[in-house]
Amino acid sequence: MDGAERSERHIPVMLDRVVALLAPALQHPGAVLVDATLGLGGHSEAFLRQFPDARLIGLDRDPDALRLAGERLEPYAGRTTFVHAVYDELPRVLAELGVPAIDGILFDLGVSSMQLDEAARGFAYAQDAPLDMRMDSSAPTTAADILNTYSAADLARILFQYGEEKFSRRIADRIVKAREVEPFTNSARLSELVRDAIPQAARRTGGHPAKRTFQALRIEVNGELDVLRRALPAAIDALALHGRIVVMSYHSLEDRITKQTLAAGTRTDVPDDLPVIPAGHEPYLKLITRGAERPTEEEVVANPRAASARVRAAERVRERGLVA
Ligand SMILES: C[S@@+](CC[C@H](N)C(=O)[O-])C[C@H]1O[C@@H](n2cnc3c(N)ncnc32)[C@H](O)[C@@H]1O
User: Fold this and answer.
1) Do domains 3-114+224-316 and 122-222 have the same CATH topology?
2) Cα–Cα distance measured from residue 157 to residue 8, given in angstroms and rounded to the nearest whole number
3) Which helix (H) or strand (E) covers residue 238, if one does?
């Protein structure tokens, strides 16, 4: 499948809402938008079309995504810069590009439809494929490495924390027993093992029984939550006054980190009994979404991958460099 065919099939999640949330920050000539998760460039294409004076910096840790997005966004080549980076490297990327501050930043978290569709990358539990799950294929550790080397306690911990899997201990113990017979290589064997480990009655709820285990492995392989915890404060710190950040999450762990990080910026750090807030201690963010916004039912029908999306956004209301 070439770049054009892929972008036709790929529908960016909550596109109009995301554009509306960032628009006030991108109207002026020379506005800089960072797409921290370029993917197939669906959101970026809409921004470049709608804001003809804005410049885009697109990051992705997946070299294939950068190549395909680059082809798709070729008509805007004079206003785009693409960088192969993990998004917590944003401060270094901006310093190297000589960009002192940015006006908007979008995080559309998780895996892209291209990564899910490419069976060989092993993200999908419904197809038999090598247990890989690296977003960047040059990274050192695959899902198979984790399954074949982590202790039962560590496996149980990641399944519980990153998959919110109630049967984490049972599954971890079975993984350790099974790998003594033969190391794990493919996803079908893991899917089957998880299904068998979960009591019959619990199999009827919560979707595919292996979904939570696959999510947990993917988060561990890519260090997703630690990276996000570092990246969001760095992104907020890079925003110019009235710059905006939009974060789209697909599971509660990502959404919780986003909610807490944005909320921290809306509070002052001085004690309640001080009559005035000293300069430099005012809140530096204002929330521009009320709670987490969800896609409409129509969007979910048209694009089932949007179903779990939750969007939160905030605006920088105090000058940079003063984040406590
Ligand atoms: C959901 S897709 C983005 C889709 C994009 N908004 C579009 O419209 O085409 C997420 C992308 O972010 C990338 N990604 C995920 N975690 C990343 C990280 N920590 N640093 C950089 N890129 C990341 C993935 O490789 C994937 O291509």
Assistant:
1) no
2) 40
3) helix 224-238
> 235-294: per-residue pLDDT in tens?
999 999 999 999 999 999 999 999 999 999 999 878 777 788 888 788 999 999 999 999
139 φ/ψ angles, rounded to the nearest 5 degrees: -70, 155
pLDDT > 90: percent of the chain = 79
CA of 10 to the centre of ligand 1 (A): 13
pLDDT reported for residue 309: 96
Q: Where are the beta strands (DSSP E) in 42-199?
A: 55-60, 80-84, 102-108
Atom of ligand 1 nearest to the CA of 15: 8
Q: Are 187 and 128 in contact (CB under 8 A)?
A: yes
CA atoms of 305 and 286, how far apart (whole Å): 29
Looking at ligand 1, which residue's alpha carbon is closest to its atom 15? 110
pTM over 0.85: yes
Who's near 233: CB < 8 A, 6+ residues apart? 261, 323
For residue 210, give the amino acid letter: A
The second-level CATH assignment, the architecture, of 3-114+224-316 is 3-Layer(aba) Sandwich (3.40)
Fold of 122-222: DNA polymerase; domain 1 (1.10.150)
Q: Is the pLDDT of residue 9 over 80?
A: no
Question: Residue ranges of the domains in the chain?
Answer: 3-114+224-316, 122-222
Average pLDDT over residues 86-101: 98
What integer best gives the mean pLDDT of the chain? Answer: 92
Gap from CA of 7 to ligand 1 centroid (Å): 15
Q: Are 56 and 33 in contact (CB under 8 A)?
A: yes
